[in-house]
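re the bet — no i am not wrong, look at it urself. input seq straight from the record:
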Amino acid sequence: PDTYGIYAGSTSNHVIRNCIVSAYTMGVFLYDSSKDYLLNITSYDNDYSGMYFNYFYNSTVENVTSYSNPGGADVVMDTTEGNVLRNIRTWNSMYGFFVLFSSGNTFTNITSVNNEHGITLGASYLNAITDSRACSSTAEGFYLHLDSYDNAGSNNLGNVTDLGSNPGFLSTECSPTYVTIFTFIMQNTLL
C-alpha cells in the first residue's frame, strides 16, 4: 500500500511548515486542495516523489528541499493553477521539478541539480518561471514538451539558466562555485 508523510485530500486552507519527511511512497501528497501554505519542507528518500500536488490551486509553497526520490520526481505539479512556488531545491532524482497539465503558476528560484530531467513542463501554459536554474541534468535541463513545446511563447521564461545539461536552452560547464554552494546546502539540510 502507498504511504504518505503528509497527506491532505479534498480540503483547503492548510498551513504546513517546518517538516522533514522521508521513507514513504510520497513524502507530501496534496490532492484537490486550495489556498494552502507550505513553508520549510524537506523531503528525501521517498519511493515515488518528494512532493506531489494534484488538482492543487491558489496556494503558496516556499523554501522546499527535495532530493533522492529514486522512483519519480522531487516535486510534481499535476493539474494545478494559480500557485506560487519560491525557493525550491531539487537534486539526485529522475525528475527534479515536473509540471504537467498546469497553468497560471509562478515559479521563482527553482534549482535543479544532478537530476535526469531538470525542470520539465508538459502540456502546460501561461506559467512564469524566473530566476531558475538546471545544472548537470543527464537528459535535459529545461524541457518544454507536448503543448508546452508547441506554444513555448505562452510560458513566460525569464532569467533561467541551463548549466551543463543536454539539451537545454544553454549547455555550458557548471561553475565550481555553484556546485560548491549547492553541496554546502545539501550537507546542511541533512543536519
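see?? The two ends are 30 Å apart (CA to CA). told u. also Residues 149-153, 164-191 have pLDDT under 50 and may be disordered. so pay up
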